[in-house]
Design goal:
Elements (H helix, E strand, L loop, with lengths): L17 H11 L4 H8 L3 H8 L7 H11 L19 E3 L4 E7 L9 E12 L10 E8 L1 E6 L2 E2 L2 E2 L3 E5 L4 E4 L6 E8 L14
Antiparallel strand pairs: 1-2, 2-3, 3-10, 4-8, 4-10, 5-6, 5-7, 5-9
Helix pairs in contact: 2-3, 2-4
Length: about 200
């Protein structure tokens, strides 16, 4: 059946690659759009747009969708194959007005490094936790408004902070220019079935 051009994933959604992957994983588990939407608290229409790469999604909502399907957020990642990583693999794990890149390969067992570019006002669009132990973040350019466990931790160039991945945290770019940050997550986010560990 031919696809209308409007059905093509939209790169500006930030989910043009992860959305279709999400759909494949949902179908492999024989779950309907309605079942996942009801478990997640989103509309069936929104979920359909997301799976086709036509809608933005916050990090917390994408984590809830993954949990409802019975997968981890790491299952959506493309991992760098090369030993020396130049730019990294495009990373899509939710968020608004951001571009993210995964800098560590799939077989790295101790840490996971991500580079995030935030356009003005861009960020996680909500608070969330991750199934890891520790998160380190440093600002390479611009400013980052980071909130950890309801406590603000504003960061500027050259500043860094470390916190538990189990604490609710959210982040955004408060400036009118681009912000660039580097995240280090230890251990790497799981990529296998994890029915109960992803939670708000």
């Amino acid at each position: 059946m031919p696809h209308h051009p409007s059905d093509a994933p939209d790169a500006s959604s930030g989910m043009n690659e992860a959305g279709p992957r999400l759909r494949q994983l949902r179908l492999s588990r024989k779950l309907t759009l309605l079942e996942v939407a009801e478990r997640t608290g989103v509309t069936k229409g929104f979920l359909s747009l997301l799976e086709r790469g036509h809608s933005r999604v916050s990090v917390p909502i994408l984590l809830r969708i993954c949990e409802a399907i019975g997968i981890t957020i790491g299952s959506l990642f493309e991992y760098p194959a090369e030993t020396v990583v130049r730019e990294g693999s495009r990373l899509q794990m939710g968020g608004v007005d951001i571009d993210e890149y995964l800098l560590t390969p799939r077989d790295e067992e101790l840490i996971q490094v991500m580079r995030t570019l935030l356009r003005p006002g861009g960020g996680s669009a909500g608070a969330y936790t991750l199934d890891a132990v520790t998160i380190f973040v440093t600002v390479l350019r611009g400013q980052l408004d980071l909130i950890v466990d309801s406590v603000p931790r504003p960061l500027t160039v050259g500043e860094s902070t470390t916190f538990s991945a189990r604490l609710l945290h959210e982040w955004s770019n408060p400036t009118d220019s681009q912000t660039e940050v580097l995240w280090v997550i230890a251990p790497p986010l799981p990529r296998d079935l994890l029915p109960h560990a992803l939670r708000d």
